[in-house]
Amino acid sequence: MNDGGHALLVEEVDVHFGGIRALDGVGLAVRPGEICGLIGPNGAGKTTLFDVVSGIRRPDRGRVLVDGRDVTRRSPAWRARHGMRRTFQRQQLFGQLTVADHCVVAQEWRGGGGGFAADLLASPTRRTHEARRHE
Question: What is the pLDDT of residues 64-109, one digit of tens each?
Fold first, then answer.
């Protein structure tokens, strides 16, 4: 494949985990404005491909181009700063929180009472709202 105006171009990507070939010569081309879905059974390599595209995993071979620029060796943070974002599928929000804490977090979308400054300064209003939520 050549770049030809693709927003995302994945060329001949291989990823191995020991003797297992997770990806073998995978290519993907997505044009600007195009919506692309990736489907397949468990173990087909979908997550591994997303890891390579987002920079979480470096391929054993091949490259990733974004808007014609080779980003294969760029970090996930660099890619994020330049517009490439990734979300993760998780069954829980925060591994270190209890179920009760997760419920409090879910209520936080309404605001903590007094805005950002109140959160930083732990204002009495903020503490009152937080105590009510914990109850």
Answer: 999 999 999 999 999 888 888 887 776 656 778 888 887 777 666 5
Q: What is the dihedral of CA 67, 70, 71, 74, to 10 degrees?
A: -140
Give the Cα separation of 32 and 126 in Å (integer): 45
Query: pTM of the full predicted structure?
Result: 0.64
Cα 107 to Cα 103, 112, 116, 132, distances in angstroms:
6, 9, 16, 11
For the chain, what is the largest distance between any 2 Cα atoms, rounded to a whole number of angstroms? 61
Tell me the three-class secondary structure of 41-85, residue by residue: CCCCCHHHHHHHHHCCCCCCEEEEEECCEECCCCCHHHHHHCCCC
CATH number corresponding to 8-81: 3.40.50.300
Considering only residues 11 and 3, tell me which one the structure prediction assigns the higher pLDDT: 11
Q: Give the residue range(s) of CATH 3.40.50.300 domains in the chain.
A: 8-81
- Residue 65, Cα to own-chain centre: how many angstroms? 18
